[in-house]
Amino acid sequence: MSFKLKCVAASVIMLASSAALAGGANFKDYKDQAPCPAVPALMDGFYVGAQAGYQMADMGENISIASGAANANPSVSVNGWLGGLFLGYGMTWDNWYYLGGEIFGNYADSSQGWDATLNASGGNYGSNAEMNSSYGLAVLPGLRLTDSTLTYIRLGYTWAQFKYNESSTAVGSASNSSTEGGFTYGVGMETLITGNWSLRGEYTYTNYNNFSTSMAAGSSSSINPSAGQYSLGVIYHFG
Length: 239
What we know:
This protein is mainly beta. It contains 1 helix and 11 strands, in the order H-E-E-E-E-E-E-E-E-E-E-E. The protein has one helix spanning 3-22, and strands at 45-65, 70-72, 75-93, 97-108, 110-117, 124-146, 149-168, 172-194, 197-208, 211-214, 220-237.
């Protein structure tokens, strides 16, 4: 039974019992009794929040040294903690359906290197990949599970800043800083803590566009980044 139905039922029982005990007292004798308290519920409208989480980025590298004399395809994990802020607007209709829109920005200081001896032609090779700031926008369609809890999916687009450095004893070195975008999708749940404050947890995944570097003697590398992210956020609703 919902909170509202319980409250109404309790009020009816209380009034009936009081009337019986009072020996037929009029209903007006109870008109000044305190009404049922409002049901705690997530608010519609604008909200702002902060989040922290863990980022698991994968840098798929396609390395070609000296026009095919040496090749490698390592997958480098660039993992690290992140933090960010977001601003959004959400609304509910038919007491069941939810739709939100959001802009956000995150920062992560994560990097990872990879070293190998490719072969006699490629020589010793080393690379270092970084994934730092990211920002984007999203829509959040969802469903209200209760008055104070909802679940949703995240659909959006994210841009992230990447840095990539590489060097080979055979053909020299190269570097590239690139901001690449990609579609983001994920799932989340939000629940009321108290008053205007709520808590949410999310998992998202983004597959970013490729970027590349170019060294001497026809050598190059192509990087295919993607990232999964777990986050926990605290939200203030303006109501």
